[in-house]
Structure formats: structure tokens, C-alpha cells
Amino acid sequence: MPVHKFIHKCQRREEPPVVYRPQSDLQYPPQARNGRWEIYAQESSTIQPRSYVTAILKFGVLIRRGMVFVSLKQDLKIKRCSLQDGVVSETVSDIIVTIQNNSDEGVTINAGDSLCYVGAQAA
Hints:
Layout: E1 18-22, E2 31-33, E3 36-40, E4 45-47, E5 52-56, E6 59-63, E7 67-72, H1 74-78, E8 81-83, E9 87-88, E10 96-101, E11 107-109, E12 114-121
Antiparallel strand pairs: 1-6, 2-3, 3-12, 4-11, 5-10, 7-9, 7-12, 8-10
């Protein structure tokens, strides 16, 4: 009698290095675009000249390996704004960034304006 061996091969699913956790109750929800997320301002704010504002992105990440980078939109960079803290290296429920206005004029960010991108760099 022939003996049949049933071989069950388990295929490992590679877990993604980062799991993105946008909050679901946002008026301007983030959009996934080309492997990164575009984040929108949820409320209006004005950054005074040579000052800064702290923004809560209402966007969390679960980091298994690697890190997440936050990059400011080009429109804000042209107005001489910069990020003071654009790297997230641990799991957080809300990414908090500080946007600094390096110009001599106030910069207004309206609710619904595209603010930044969030994307992962795997280790």
C-alpha cells in the first residue's frame, strides 16, 4: 500500500514594519499616497514670525522595525517653515510635531490645508 504524506507548508506572512493608525473621526482624514500618508491640518493656526507651533497630527503608528519620517509640505518650506522633530522611532498613538516659522512674516495654516507627509523607512 502506498503511503501518502501530506505536507502542509506554512507560509510566513511578513509583517509590515509600520502599521499606520489614523484616527477615524477626523474632518479632514489623511490620504494614503505612493507609500506615504498625506496629513491635513484639522484646525486653523497662525505661526508668528520667528516663533513655532506644536501640531498634533491625530495619526498614530505601530513601529515593529525602522522608523517613520515626517516631512513638511513644500508650500510651507517655501514660506521658510521647518520641522524641529521629524523622526518617530517608537510606537505612538499621536504624532506630535513642532513647526517653526523662520521668516519675518506670519504664516497661516487653514483647516483642511495639506500639512505634511508621514512615511516609513524600514531598518
